[in-house]
Amino acid sequence: MDFEKYSEIFFKRFRIFGANPIYKKITNTKYPGSSSEIVQDKFSLIIVVCILVIYWCGIVMSFFIEHKGNDKISAISNIIQLILNGIAFSTIYINSMVKFRCFYNIITGFQVIDENLQGVGKSIRYQNSLAISRSILITFGTYLLFSITFDCYVTVIRYNMTPMWYWVVATLPSIIYSLSLLQAMFIISWISTRCAMINSILRLDGRAKFLRNLPIVPIVSHSNSFKGNMKQSLDLITKIYTIMSDVCQLSQIIDSFLGPAFLATITAIFAVTSIQVYYIYVTSITMDRVAETSGFSIWSLLVSLNIVLMNIFLVIALTTICERLNHQTMKILQNFSEMQISKEVPAELSIWLHPMISHMKLTAFGFFSIDYTMLCGFMTAIITYLVIFIQFYSIDPDHGNTNVIRGVGNTNQQVQTSMKVGR
To answer: What is the spatial distance between Cα 80 and Cα 217, in angstroms, rounded to a whole number?
Structure first.
């Protein structure tokens, strides 16, 4: 099995959700030796356009649903969540359709790198990778299905907070961007795995050890065996340098493909997480003073908590995988630097390696890097906005009125509806 067959099996699990494009390879029959042309599948394009049109019609219709609760913060937050989730949902689909050639270049790039790695004695066990990816996808899909079912039960069935179509509009983006981020994590982990294999060669291969053990001062006379070992070692390093150049180029293509989705998705996750943390606060201080039928209950608290935990998990997992890639590339640079100490190793082999690796960082469309610094800012901003939300919640005179909390008519139900459905 080569990477093309492996990727075909892997990506079809996400393709049904629109996380990656559908394209066709057209071979020119007049010129048998010519390369295949990649074209967009028109049927899938029509389906995506129809889905987006229907979805945004649902978003517009949701603005006319009456949320008569006195909590203005919750009403505004609800609209913000819907719009940002809609933008993330649309960006993932549009980016997947527009950059289908970029996606194809990613697949061919991995295939070239794997073929070159086989030339230096390293090969990928695709069957094991498929088994691991299948188990991860089943586990994640099971938890996602459980979360959706629980959310639907609490929001639609138990408390009848919202009609089913509105719940679908509010929930669908989180399903799509969760699967899209999972697919992105796999792609980044593939790059990281190949960088780890390169490091393994540079540290453990006998030809690489030969260069590392050379003296700093060049040897005056060389024996034939020394010249032979030197030639083999330099040939290996030249091949590794070529592979690393392909890896750097591939990482830039991946950054170009994933960047827009990262920007829209992480922005939506940040907004939704901040607002849901605020909802957890409001529900936790209110549910003991009202009846369970009001909607402020342990069930609604668990729904918000589940959304927060899922979003935080996605961000932490993504940044951890990106940091692992950065760590592997820095180790490659360090290994090349150790070999460069010897005067026997030509400087031109690694002179361009540092600037290439410095451009390997994955970003959110160039706005910020996906790393632990972003994660720290993400968590700090959520806490900051929670404090601001609480201050506005305390200032609002409606929250000081016990009639609003204890309920006049169906006010509590309406407040909770505006708080829970838009995420």
So the answer is: 65
